[in-house]
From TrEMBL:
Residues 1-21 form the signal peptide. This is Membrane metalloprotease. It comes from the Bacteria. It comes from Gillisia lutea. Keywords: Signal. The keyword Signal applies.
């Protein structure tokens, strides 16, 4: 599922093996990996990601096309964001792995899901919940000269970051560092995995920017639609990654988070 479009002017914009079961279904030496917990609708695992009721740790598999490795700033900021907003006593682990280009760009979300099917190694297992983040070497097929997609959270534990598009945005005049834009988009999409806004974590106070889908209507919040847009994003974030506003934080706290 592709998340969010800014309908007026712009279209909006997770270590290695170890998270699999050891059982086999046919007596062969190949392990059977239960993928069902990672193939649900967006927001379906919000409470599981936020709380320690079922899962006490998060492992994130960052798979990137060679040449588009996420910055260390992005990795550090994401880990800080998760530690701040989730109850995971066994911690957050992030791994990165390079793969070859699919040569499919510009992408549909179905093509991204197919790449995940082929490349994803880490799934929920035991008390560990797994997230897959794909850093793509191209754009979304719906991009135009005036509207671009920077990222999409499309399942309960899956997202794509359009790294090539972020690179192009970062090259604009007066744009923040590429790593700041990248980090902002990754944190924003993780907010959607957390069920924001009103897509798995029920609103405690109405703050949904209804015309723009599952976004926050509080200016400056990480979850506003502006976070995923080229020009407005540049104007909004400056040199720092936005944080969640109090309404979004209340929603997460009510659903098991901090």
């Amino acid at each position: 599922m592709k998340i969010q479009k800014l309908l007026v002017a712009f279209l909006l914009i997770s270590l290695s093996i170890g998270c699999s079961t050891d059982s086999t279904s046919d007596g062969s030496s190949e392990p059977t990996i239960d993928k069902s917990g990672n193939l649900k609708a967006l927001g379906a695992s919000a409470e599981e990601l936020l709380s320690d009721i079922k899962f006490t740790s998060i492992t994130i598999e960052m798979v990137y096309v060679t040449g588009f490795k996420p910055s260390q700033k992005t990795i550090d900021n994401l880990k800080s964001f998760l530690n701040t907003r989730t109850f995971k006593p066994d911690g957050v682990t992030i791994s990165t792995r390079a793969i070859a280009s699919s040569s499919l760009a510009p992408f549909t979300i179905q093509e991204i899901a197919n790449i995940e099917k082929e490349e994803r190694l880490v799934y929920n297992a035991g008390d560990e919940i797994a997230v897959f983040i794909y850093f793509a070497d191209g754009s979304n097929e719906d991009d135009t000269d005036n509207k671009v997609v920077l990222g999409s959270a499309y399942r309960n534990t899956s997202m794509v970051i359009y790294s090539k598009t972020i690179e192009n945005v970062a090259a604009r005049a007066n744009a923040p560092e590429k790593s700041t834009i990248e980090s902002t988009v990754v944190n924003h999409e993780f907010g959607h995995l957390f069920g924001l806004v009103d897509v798995g974590s029920p609103m405690q106070t109405d703050h949904k920017d209804s015309p723009e889908g599952s976004h926050c209507n509080v200016d400056g919040c990480l979850m506003t639609a502006n976070v995923q847009i080229g020009g407005p994003l540049i104007d909004m974030i400056g040199s720092t990654v936005p944080d969640l506003d109090s309404f979004c934080i209340q929603d997460l706290q009510a659903n098991g988070g901090k």
